[in-house]
Amino acid sequence: MAPKASEISTPIRERQRAYKPVQPMRFRPGPATIACVSFLCLLIGLLFLALQIRTIFSDQLKQEYSGLVLEGIERAESARNLVRVWQQQADDSIARSGQSKHPGHPEQPDDYRRARIDLAARIASLAALVNASPSAAPRVPQSALLPDANLDDTDALLAVESVYWRAQRNNDSADARTRITRVASTLIVLSACVFGALITALGMYAKRTRQLAGESHKFEHAALHDAMTGLPNRRKLFATLAETAAGLSSSAGNPTLPKIAVIYIDLDGFKQVNDSLGHRVGDEFLIAVSKRFRKTVRLVDVVARFGGDEFVVLVREFSTNAELEAIAQRLIDCVLQTDEQMGIGFVRASVGIASFPNPVRDYHQLVAAADATMYQVKRNGKNGYAFATRVS
Q: Which of 100, 196, 212, 370 has its CA 20 to 30 A from that of 146?
């Protein structure tokens, strides 16, 4: 008896369900493989960068060479213009004298001959540059180097050379910009490949770094500023003074070189405020007068609390002593206004002024000179200002 179709098909279906096709093996690169590939990509990128940078330097040298040639062309054109001027003057002189202009006319003026010789010398300098160029530049013929060379030929030569070398410089500049763009793009890609793995680690420390930076800024600000008034302290003052004086030294020889000055302020009678009214009132007075000092000077100037009831203003630029007198008077008025506002009645200011580089020749002595001048004001009756004398 023949088996039924259902009896045959069922075992086949079971075998088909039991059969599992073999999955092909997939390549999974390990850390070492990734590191090798990354290192190889880095080497290729660095090699590409080296070639591009070398070409950029070559393009820059070409631009500089083109610039030298163009400068030579400009000097030759200036000499040619001078020849044209003297030639025109000679022609005008001939026309006024009624003489005929012909090749047999007497010699040209000495200025004209000197101008022709100068033109020939500049053409010779230009020829030395152009003819030494490795590029296929239009050469300067020997006939153009003679003092009696045809001026029309000289004009045509300078025009041709100017057009060629300007185009050459523009082409080299465009090539350099293109290569710089390639270098920048390559650097971006390499940076992404090399430092991409560090992003996660850097993120873990970002918040902590910001916290430390904030704390460091607070510490730095506290180290350079007075805690009560918020003004810069003497350390900050001396650092700013040195920086400002260094800027003046780097501009030495400038006829319009600005000057700097230090204004030293001491509060007369302030000790009596602390003794009679208490330190709280004294502190309030210092805070109030500090705010007025800060408002009465320019933003570029520095108002510092030098210590106790002494303040120093660094004037970072002035032209005349009249400006310093106006500033000093405003500072004295600030003390008087603060005194009147708080109803004290006896606090005034003695002010000493010293400027650099005249009369104080060394900026390190500016503060000391202003301080000594301030004490002279105290000895002469207080509540005023005076200028320091010459200090070597």
A: 100
Identity (one letter) of the amino acid at 24? P
Q: How far apart are CA 297 and CA 261, in angstroms?
A: 13
CA separation for the pair 138, 304 (Å, rounded): 67
CATH H-level superfamily of 225-387: Reverse transcriptase/Diguanylate cyclase domain (3.30.70.270)
Helices (H), the chain: 5-18, 31-97, 110-131, 151-195, 199-224, 234-250, 270-277, 279-296, 321-342, 366-379
Cα-based torsion angle of the residue sequence 310, 241, 297, 308 in order, rounded to the nearest 10 degrees: -10
Sign of CA dihedral 185, 186, 191, 192: positive
3-state secondary structure of 305: strand
DSSP state of 360: B
* Residue 240 vs residue 251, higher pLDDT: 240
Q: Which helix (H) or strand (E) holds 384?
A: strand 384-387
Q: Is the dihedral of CA 239, 241, 244, 245 positive or negative?
A: negative
Edge-to-edge strands, sheet with 259-268: 302-307, 310-318, 259-268, 348-356, 384-387
Judge whether 338 and 288 are in contact, CB under 8 Å: yes
Contact 262, 311 (CB under 8 A): no
Peptide bond before 357: cis, by omega within 30 degrees of 0? Answer: yes
CB 315 within 8 A of CB 248: no
Residue among 343, 321, 335, 247 nearest 291 (CA)? 335
Tokens at 292, concatenated: 């007025």
Distance between CA atoms of 247 and 244, rounded to whole angstroms?
5
Contact indicator for 353, 379 with CB cutoff of 8 Å? no
Which DSSP state fits 139?
P
Choose among 212, 347, 198: nearest CA to 271: 347
Tens digits of residue pLDDT in 67-118: 888 888 888 788 778 878 877 777 777 677 665 544 444 456 777 778 878 8
